[in-house]
Design a protein that fits this description.
Blueprint (H helix, E strand, L loop, with lengths): L30 H10 L5 H24 L7
């Protein structure tokens, strides 16, 4: 069976199409808001940030549960 060649200027179908980022530099933007834009709300980092928030929430929830119902966890 003969294999057909890919069209000219084509990329492999498994490679993600990377769009060039446009400059989003605002001279009036503070360092705090730039940090949030680049590290917290960036789409490529959002899944990791959600994992961190979930872990911290479970940790705090465990502390609250033990402080609230801790006496029920000790055998009498």
């Amino acid at each position: 069976m003969a294999r057909r060649a890919a069209p000219a200027n084509s990329v492999p179908s498994f490679a993600p199409q990377i769009q060039p980022r446009r400059a989003t530099h605002d001279p009036d933007e503070s360092a705090f808001s730039r940090f949030f834009r680049e590290q917290i709300w960036a789409p490529e980092k959002l899944s990791g940030n959600i994992s961190i928030v979930t872990g911290v929430g479970m940790f705090i929830g465990g502390i609250v549960a033990v402080r609230t119902w801790g006496d029920l966890m000790i055998p009498a």
